[in-house]
Amino acid sequence: MTRQDDTTLKWFSGKSVLVTGGGGFIAASLIRLLCGTDCRIVRLLRHPAAAWPDPGLARIEDLVGDVREPALWDSLPDGIDVVFHLAGQTSTYEANRDPRSDLDSNVLPMLLMLQACRERALSPVVVCASTVTICGLPERLPVGENYPDAPITVYDLHKQMAENYLKYHARIGVVRGAALRLANIYGPGPRSSRADRGILNQMVGRALRGEALTVYGRGEQLRDYVHVEDVARAFVAAAAHMDALNGGHYIIGREEGYSIAQALQLVADRAAARTGKFVPVTSVEPPAGLSPIEARNFVADTHRFTEATGWHARFGLVQGIDTLIESLI
Fold first, then answer.
1. pLDDT digits (tens, 9 = 90+) for 99-112
2. In the structure, what pLDDT confidence band is assigned to residue 194 with cuts at 50, 70 and 90?
3. How high is the pLDDT of residue 198?
């Protein structure tokens, strides 16, 4: 932890924090980070889960419910100061298969939450998880907040709609809020339930089992890989500096571009250094029906968020892969 992180976390002392998607990948790192602070954390879960193993200074409560149901938002406990909205459907392919269901999962909960805040005269700080793929297929890199939105998938269209609802309600003073557009996230934590998410994590698991890693074609597309602990730090920084961020969206990444092939070779090399198991990285033909968003190149420009909050990504890809390997061995 840096001195900047310590100062940011102190802002949460005595506050009540709601984490939707409380059993998910980002939530695990976020809650772990907040456990060092004397705060109240309400995990909003779709299904009952095991109690948090070590709450530290925090007081952790569980609330089980469906974010798509109005009754849930009407029954939220009073006194919530911060909402980290992480719940949602995360598969591009599932969104294309069933757009209505994706709308219900990724847009409706945001609208219901904001309506409940308006009707109950609540005014929390809201930070929501969004995606850098809203910009579509960038023609120049790196990509910052000024790059025009051009969603080319149902999933990205709906994430943009959820952002816009939040921005509107921030503009009229119902809440104070911002969206964090996240690049490719990896690192220790719960496994994603979607096959097309958490690809780097999946490849680390394969390497540790001695299985070959596969890349579509030559794997030349650039990705910006950001460690989940850095993402958690970005969420707490956003909430604590909302006066500077209110009503906007912000890019969160490492600001380093690796081709997919380079990243997988790093996975193979770091796994071999730890286990002695050398696995090949093999090229395979892309499957039929591959989404056009897979062809994107992306590198983040985070300077606006850094200037407003003092946050910067700490984990380089080699160090980050090593932390993931250690968590899985």
1. 999 999 999 999 99
2. low
3. 85
DSSP 3-state of 84: strand
Segment 238-262, tens digit of pLDDT: 999 999 999 999 999 999 999 999 9
Query: CA-to-CA distance for 257 and 253, rounded, in angstroms?
Result: 10
Q: pTM of the predicted model, to two decimals?
A: 0.95
pLDDT in tens, 84-143: 999 999 999 999 999 999 999 999 999 999 999 999 999 999 999 999 999 999 999 999
Token pair recorded at residue 263: 């990243």
Alpha-carbon dihedral 310, 160, 154, 117, rounded to 10 degrees:
110
Q: How far apart are the C-alpha atoms of 3 and 234, rounded to whole Å? A: 15
Q: What are phi and psi of 305, to 5 degrees?
A: -65, -40
E strand intervals along 6-115? 16-20, 40-45, 59-64, 82-85
d(CA 35, CA 56): 5
Q: Can you point out the beta strands (E) in the chain? A: 16-20, 40-45, 59-64, 82-85, 125-131, 176-182, 184-186, 213-216, 222-223, 225-227, 249-252, 258-259, 281-284
* Residues 240 and 170: beta-carbon distance below 8 Å: no
- Name which of 174, 39, 48 is nearest 113 in CA terms: 174
Rounded Cα distance, 205 and 264, in Å: 12
62/235 Cα distance (integer angstroms)? 20
DSSP character string of 164-202: HHHHHHHHTTS-EEEEEEE-EEESSSSPPSSTTS-HHHH
